[in-house]
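User: quick one, fold this
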Amino acid sequence: MATEIKAPTFPESVAEGTVAAWHKKPGDSVERDELIVEIETDKVVLEVVAPEAGTLTDVMAEEGDTVESEQVLGKIGEGSASGSQKEEKSSGDDSAEKSEEKSEGKKEEKKSQRWRQATRRKSSQLP
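Assistant:
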């Protein structure tokens, strides 16, 4: 049975947030209390952790989507051994390295994008 990953309850003065970054992709295994996704509000960045161990099966809110308090962000299903078998098969494959390099580049790009957004937001609040 799938477990829902929900946005946390936002503070009273915060109505909504934006999915800033997913740290896991569908099919990735997760451990209980492992960071899965970050939600950025106008006041704070909230970290959402896995409520239980398993496999991320579904992402319902993509990066950049606006979400509300307690909204379902994704689902975790029961863990499976197929994920580790896939890793063993591709461990000697160059495509795995290329995929990892692409992933690192995307992470850096996302960080840079979030920094620019935060800077713009702060500068627009100046008198």
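User: anything notable?
Assistant: Residues 93-127 form one domain.
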